[in-house]
Amino acid sequence: MAIKTVNYDKILWLRFIFSLILDQKAFTYFMNRIIKEEKNIARFSVLVLMVVLATIYRLLPHPWNLAPVGAMALFGGAYFGSIVAAIFVPLFSLWVSDLVLNNLIFAQYFPEFTLFYSGFAWQYGSFVVICLIGLLLKNNVKPISVLVASVAGSIVFFVISNFGVWLGGTMYPQTSSGLLACYAAGLPFIQNTLVGDLVFSAALFGSFEYLQGRYKYLRPSSI
């Protein structure tokens, strides 16, 4: 009974948070500015839909670390018209899915309602960097460039997130040997991260390249 009560309370919190966000004039103004800068609404809508669909995968059972978040960040950076949209859309989608994961799916690990988990800044920061890597792919989306960018994104996430674990935790001593031990402990997880980035990058980039090749109104020059 206690678990059901906690989950029900968290659902109410989620409803409150989402209604608060959607009702805020600042959020509406911000989104309107993004859409205005994007110019091609059809292209922007399809890109957002693809990011949302990739985000939904996080809510389904899947192997640990084999997720689309790095690919989403890379994809956003490569295709959205403005840098604000390139960073905001993937990260906002990531945060919304984190709310659901932390407060509903994995609620037993988070007794209190959780807006941001411990160490989130390091992981989100790494995704911002991956978004910026994606910007380098604008007008240069080729299989080899996406492959290189995906591998670079995996490395960026590994380096930054594990550095955050070392700096913000107590598991490893705050020494160079402690940092190396932290990175060594993270090595078994980088394989799935790399596979996830490669697979989902191929799916996202490949799908949108096909779509904008088939439908002219999805191309950047179409307004």
SSE order, one letter for each helix or strand: HHHHHHHH
Structural class: mainly alpha
Major sheet description: none
User: Can you give the mean pLDDT?
Assistant: 87
Based on DSSP secondary structure assignment, what is the total number of beta strands? 0
The gyration radius over C-alpha positions equals: 19 Å
- Structurally, the number of domains stands at 1
Binned, the helix content reads over 70%
Beta-strand fraction estimate: under 5%
- Between the first and last Cα atoms, what is the distance in angstroms? 55 Å
- The rough form would be described as globular
Could you name the ranges where pLDDT drops below 50 across 5 or more consecutive residues? Answer: 1-6
Tell me what the structure shows:
It contains eight helices and no strands. With 223 residues, the protein is mostly helical. The protein has one domain (2-218). Helix 4 (69-79) packs parallel to helix 6 (120-135). The longest helix has 39 residues, at 176-214. The chain is globular. The model is unreliable at 1-6 (pLDDT under 50).
